[in-house]
């Protein structure tokens, strides 16, 4: 069928068959379908929707547009976590080694920062010589020997998604839930996963601000992934404040290592990390229930097994063998550090988390252009949380910066982004919903 006929069917609200969707995606790969036709298709999908079966077909077709990883001979469950992105989200850095220590395989293909949100790959690149672009052989070897490996996305996986996403970005069709679902899952399914948990952020620091929209996307991802053969759960988590007490690439690595060392553990970060780990351990039947999973997680953290897995992963992928013990020696440091104090004493009641993420970009810790080289040292530590009392002794955060201009911009941003009240606000559970 001609590409324009497939577009016409969706324009006229007709259901597409698997053969028609396969033909259209194949046409993207062999360039017989033009960019204009891709744009028209995505607009028709946005306006008229794709049902669950059509979204499964689209996801599988995009998955099959490139290389697919296989894990034959790996005798333990192959699991992964994907986050929709947030500010201060360093969960992957702890989750992968925790799960590896719990005796499952975690081949994690992560992303770079997108918009105001930070990226796991950027954080790992603050570790000297860590190879985020490891080839397939090294990636598999590390997963096999260590139990986990975190590397960057490869263009070999789901290349049709890359083309479709670029066009969606410039023709106002990013918001389509079926298209978001197929974009996320095509890459994850191409990685050959058996079990997946989706950490879907919801709040003013997330791409999904509205709870109902976030819930709809989570349900779509669970339905499509399970329909495509990968057992999947979703957890909606709060992103109305920064996650943890650090924001910024190298600084978040420090918090992750300290978490694995059982030091300076932030409660919200801990709850979310453990919840995602428990969900996967039960889903893949490594543990019978969440209580058993909680005990196992506690064991591998207290014994240092999870920290050892992180150290072994860093070493296997080219980083320093003693990184976990001497991270301060290896990570980049900003020229200056100085606290930012609120204009008045009181409790933090609200936070414009997106504005905090934008302030990192202004300190060159995030991108304004795709190939921009980042300053991996800038950011915030000791970031106060909602419910914390701040005054002239307790700062909003300590900013790590390279120039006075950066400091003044960061100060202005934080003072505008954080609301102080006399009364202590209700502290809410960061887990909003499990699907």
Q: What general outline do the C-alpha atoms trace?
A: globular
The CATH H-level homologous superfamily of the largest domain: Nucleoside phosphorylase/phosphoribosyltransferase catalytic domain
The SSE order reads HHHHEHEHHEHHEHEHHHHHEEHEEEHEE
Which topology of the largest domain does CATH recognise?
A: Pyrimidine Nucleoside Phosphorylase, Chain A, domain 2
Count all strands and give the number: 12
Structural class: alpha/beta
For the largest sheet, list the strands in their spatial order.
Answer: 1-4-5-12
- Rounded to an integer in angstroms, the radius of gyration calculated over CA atoms is 22 Å
Low-confidence regions: none
| Content of β-strand | 5-15%
| Count of individual helical segments | 17
Instruction: Kindly report how far apart the N and C termini lie.
Output: 38 Å
Going by CATH, the architecture of the largest domain would be 3-Layer(aba) Sandwich
Helix proportion: 40-55%
Total number of domains:
3
User: What is the CATH class designation of the largest domain?
Assistant: Alpha Beta
């Amino acid at each position: 069928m001609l590409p324009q006929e497939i577009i016409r069917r969706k324009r006229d609200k007709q259901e597409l068959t698997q053969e028609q969707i396969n033909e259209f995606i194949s046409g993207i790969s062999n360039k017989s379908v033009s960019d204009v036709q891709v744009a028209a298709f995505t607009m028709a999908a946005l306006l008229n929707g794709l049902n669950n079966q059509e979204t499964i077909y689209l996801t599988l077709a995009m998955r099959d547009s490139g290389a697919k990883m296989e894990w034959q001979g790996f005798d333990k469950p192959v699991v992964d976590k994907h986050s929709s992105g947030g500010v201060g989200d360093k969960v992957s850095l702890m989750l992968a080694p925790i799960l590896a220590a719990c005796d499952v395989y975690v081949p994690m293909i992560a992303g770079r920062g997108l918009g105001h949100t930070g990226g796991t790959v950027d954080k790992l690149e603050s570790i000297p010589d860590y190879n985020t672009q490891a080839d397939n052989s090294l990636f598999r070897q590390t997963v096999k020997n260590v139990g986990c490996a975190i590397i960057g996305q490869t263009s070999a996986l789901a290349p049709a998604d890359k083309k479709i996403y670029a066009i969606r970005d410039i023709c106002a069709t990013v918001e389509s839930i079926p298209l978001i679902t197929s974009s996320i899952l095509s890459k994850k399914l191409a990685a050959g996963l058996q079990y997946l948990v989706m950490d879907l952020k919801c709040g003013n620091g997330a791409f999904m601000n509205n709870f109902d929209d976030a819930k709809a996307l989570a349900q779509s991802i669970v339905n499509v992934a399970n329909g495509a053969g990968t057992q999947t759960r979703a957890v909606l988590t709060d992103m109305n404040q920064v996650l943890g007490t650090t924001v910024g690439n190298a600084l978040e690595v420090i918090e992750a290592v300290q978490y694995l060392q059982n030091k300076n553990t932030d409660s919200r970060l801990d709850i979310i990390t453990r919840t995602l780990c428990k969900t996967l351990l039960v889903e893949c039947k490594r543990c019978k229930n969440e209580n058993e999973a909680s005990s196992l997680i506690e064991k591998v953290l207290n014994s240092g097994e999870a920290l050892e897995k992180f150290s072994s992963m860093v070493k296997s992928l080219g980083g320093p063998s003693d990184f976990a013990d001497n991270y301060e020696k290896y990570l980049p440091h900003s020229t200056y550090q100085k606290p930012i104090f609120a204009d008045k004493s009181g409790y933090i009641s609200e936070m414009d988390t997106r504005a905090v993420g934008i302030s990192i970009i202004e300190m060159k810790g995030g991108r304004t252009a795709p190939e921009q080289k980042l300053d991996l040292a800038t950011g915030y530590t000791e970031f106060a949380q909602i419910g914390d009392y701040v005054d002239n002794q307790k700062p909003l955060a300590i900013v790590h910066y390279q120039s006075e201009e950066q400091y003044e911009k960061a100060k202005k941003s934080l003072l505008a982004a954080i609301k102080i009240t006399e009364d202590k606000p209700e502290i809410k559970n960061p887990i909003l919903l499990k699907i």
